[in-house]
Amino acid sequence: MDEERLIDLEIRIARQDDLLDELNRTVYKQQQKIDQLEKLCAELARRLKELASSAGQGMPANERPPHY
């Protein structure tokens, strides 16, 4: 009886170890994606600032270009 219980506990621990490893891999992949998206957002914000500043130098944003 005690040996069965010990084997059951060992199996449960092994499964929990596998689950923990899988969760760690998932969290790692999610963090990589978050980092990638943060870089993308920063780049988009930089480009928007550039566009806003360049629009201010030329034609007003609401004015139609001359080819209309």
Describe the structure.
The chain is mainly α and 68 residues long. Helices cover 82% and strands 0% of the residues. The longest helix is centred in the middle third of the chain and has 56 residues, at 2-57. The chain is rod-shaped, with a radius of gyration of 28 Å. The N and C termini lie far apart (88 Å).
Number of strands: 0
CA-atom Rg in angstroms = 28 Å
Query: How much of the polypeptide forms β-strand, as a percent range?
Result: under 5%
Straight-line distance between termini: 88 Å
Globally, the shape reads: rod-shaped
> Tell me about the biggest sheet?
none
Helix fraction bin: over 70%
Number of helices: 1
Uncertain runs are none
By secondary-structure content and strand pairing, the structural class works out as mainly alpha
What is the N-to-C order of secondary-structure elements (H for helix, E for strand)? H
Q: Roughly what is the average pLDDT, rounded to an integer?
A: 90
